[in-house]
Write a structure and sequence with these properties.
Helix content: 55-70%
Shape: globular
Number of helices: 5
Oligomer: single chain
């Protein structure tokens, strides 16, 4: 009944969203929003928006945004390659990297 990131594609069940939060030192937080009922159950029952996970997503989010900003501003190929590698990784935040990729590069393949 839960999303299993080893079997399921998290991007089919969750949206990664950013909300302004004046009480957070970064000024925003990264939260998961459900796309499916399975995603909703997983978020609620496992607590995927609990403070420590929000903080971990924020910490992993900042470097990707810096890389994307660098690429967008200067067309830096190395930054783009690093982000591509993060998208292909099996790390816990690869889905977040892929979400950021699509946001900035659309359907351009990262594989």
């Amino acid at each position: 009944l839960f999303v299993n990131p080893c079997i399921d594609d998290p991007e089919e069940h969750f949206n990664f969203e950013f909300e302004l939060d004046v009480n957070h030192p970064d000024g925003f937080i990264s939260v998961l929003r459900p796309k499916t009922e399975k995603g909703q159950v997983t978020i609620k029952e496992i607590g995927l928006n609990r403070p420590n996970l929000i903080e971990e997503r924020n910490e992993s989010l900042i470097p990707y945004n810096i890389l994307l900003a660098d690429y967008a501003a200067q067309g830096d190929r190395k930054s783009k390659q690093l982000l591509k590698r993060a998208c292909q990784s099996k790390s816990p935040f690869a889905a977040l990297a892929r979400s950021l990729w699509r946001k900035h590069f659309g359907d351009e393949p990262y594989s």
